[in-house]
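Table S4 entry, lipid-A-disaccharide synthase.
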Amino acid sequence: ISKLKNSSPNIEYLSVGGEYLKALGIKSIYDLKEITYLGFTKVLLNIFKINKKINETANKIIEFSPDILFSVDSPDFTLRVAKKVKKIKPNIKTIHFVAPQVWVWREHRLKQLKSFLDHILLLFPFEKKYFDKENIKSTFTGHPLLEENEKTEIDISQIIKKDKKVFSIYPGSRMSEINVLLPILFKFVKLMNEKYTDIFFIFHSTTEHNQLIKNLLSKEGFKNCEVISD
């Protein structure tokens, strides 16, 4: 979006976003945190609130009437929004980034996707065959985390010693994920440190949460850990 704003400043945006989009001056229907729930139980307990947000989001998009609806991941939310929007405003082009894992489950939903998705962007090349089978337009774009790893390879080599084995840890990009996963991951690091002395842990973080994770690692007293972000 940052690049689009520079190259095409006349484009208007409406989003459900967080701090990064807010910093770019993008109007948001509400903050992404309002629909971020981790775990089946929390989703179940908030199901009525989630359904209300789906309807609210779809209605706001229909009112805004954009040329393109671009959704990212979270298929149980974003695709339900896209389906509602497409039903009322079929002229709006719908593009989704991060394909639902149809090769593992819900393969029958491919036919449903075809009815309201115009294009889907894929993380992995093997996904394409599933969408080609149903004549759903798709493009392999690659995984952003893999690209981040390539960018940070030099930094990692400067951080660790040559005799250390590198263990990458991904605690998530959402605060709700980090709150749940970090205590578990810290216990794991402690157990590994009790058994091994040749491991260096790299925590991969968003820029937004980099300092927070560094502070928590420091509080735990870990000497063989580092945090990197793109």
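The radius of gyration is 20 Å.
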